[in-house]
Each structure stands twice: as structure tokens, then as C-alpha cells.
Amino acid sequence: MSGLLLVGDVVTDVVARHAEPLAPGTDTAARIRILPGGAAANAACWAARSGCSDVRLLGRVGVDEAAWHEAALRRAGVRPLLVRDAEAPTGTVVALVDGQAGGERTFLTDSGAVLRLAPADFSPRLLDGVAHLHLSGYLFFAATSRDTAVLATAAARERGVPVSVDPASTGFVGALGVDRFLGAVAGADVLFPNADEAALLTGLPAPEAAAAALSRRHRLVAITLGPEGALVAEAGAVVARVPAPRVRPVDTTGAGDAFAGGFLAARLAGATVAEAAAAGCRAGAEAVTVVGGRPAR
């Protein structure tokens, strides 16, 4: 088995890059693009870009843009398994990208159909031929999609398929509650937080300490550190730290998704955790040089 199944969000990104500070109450010049996005979908595309030949994505989208998203995923080498929702639109994210802050982004999120992914949308048969299951953290922020994520985790564990989770959002984790989030993702083998998410989940500001603490809950924890690279912890200890390639960032949207996709593709190909983290950092560095969260075609 070599397949990678990702479950989570497929959204339409409206990326607005502004070179000057936002001017409240009036106009701010920006370059605006509409692109396919979503943390799970982005990670799937980066996994395919990083060499994984069997990447599948389960998500829920509105009928309005389903065909567009399916076509974009296929072009990226991902097999779309999209559920079409006739009652809710495709999720939309407005990404405000600050050109004066190294491409740092702020998100405005309308989850739309994303959080309506229901247990009936998942079947254990989706795990046939799958060697790893990856869940977007956004699934855990609403009851229906959280039930689906828990169901998928249980089905994977029953088959001996490892599971990873990307916490996705400090804002949404904080709104749900750290204890509730940690309880919901307790079945995950691998966690992919960034430094801020790791600090929130542990109360420990130092990434090394946070990684060590989280790796007592999960078998493997890889924390992304932006331009400083990433570190990996297992069994309560940091076991690897890798640098990130030096690049000039244009848009940091999707950098963490790219890391997860690159990391998982490398692990499925037999890489060590340090090698996988380096692969993830290479994907993340490439991601910040393009607009949006997907590889450039």
C-alpha cells in the first residue's frame, strides 16, 4: 500500500496582496486573485508535487464550484473524492497578504460546505490501498465534521493505518478549547503544528519544549518554524532540527500545508523523520514564493 488519503477542506481563496498598510474607511490598492485552496487540498497537491503517486482527497464543496475544484485537483495529480452539497456553498477564504511583512497573511474564513462533511460521506472502503490518513484540523471545529474525523481516525486505526493531523488555526483551536481539541485528536499518530499552535496546545512558548510535550501524546510531532525550518520530536525528546532554504517570500499562504504534504510524501517513500522534515521545508520554501497555497503549474 502506498496511497495517501487526505480528508478536510477544499475552499476558494481570494488572495489580496497589498504593498501598503490597510487604510480603514477607504481604498487600499491590492493585487487580487481567485484560486483553489484549502489546507487539506493544498497539502494533497504538495504531496503529489513531492512525488507521491497515489494521493486522494475527500472533502465537501458546494455544487457551484465543484467541477472547477475537481479539475484543479486532477491537474495537480490528486484524485478528487468530493461530495457535492446542494444546500451550502463552497467554503471561501479571503487572504490578506501584507507585502511589508514578508508576505504574512491574515484570513477571513467562511467555511461553507467544509464543516458539513458528514459521517455518511466517509466509508472505510476509502482506506483501501491507503498507507496513511491525514486530517485537516479544520474538521474538528464543528460537530458534524468532527464526528467524521473521529470516525475516519477509528477506521484507520482498526486497519493499522497511521493518522496525522494539522491543527490548522490558533483562532479556531482557542474558540473550541484546547482540552476539547486535544481530546478529539487523541487518536492521531502524527501532529503538524506551527510554533504558535504548539505553544497554544501546551502552554509552553519554547518550540522545543512544546514539541517534546506533544510527543508524549502523539508518536511523532513536527513543528514548523517558518524561515527557521522545523523540528521533530518523538517520545518526549527532540530528535531532529532542520533548516529551511532561504527564499524571498511572496505569500506565506499554504506554507504549513506544503510542509505536511512534502513530509508525508517523503515518509511514504521511506525517508527518515529528519529527511522528511527537510523535504517538508523544501516544499514550504517553494510555497512561499508563489501566490496562493498550491504549487505553481
Automatic annotation (TrEMBL):
InterPro entries assigned: Carb_kinase_PfkB-like, Carboh/pur_kinase_PfkB_CS, PfkB_dom, Ribokinase-like
Pfam families according to UniProt: PfkB
MF term (GO), any: kinase activity
Keyword terms, alphabetized: Kinase, Transferase
Domain of life assignment: Bacteria
Occurrences of domain Carbohydrate kinase PfkB (ranges): 4-294
Family: Belongs to the carbohydrate kinase PfkB family.
Protein name in UniProt: PfkB family carbohydrate kinase
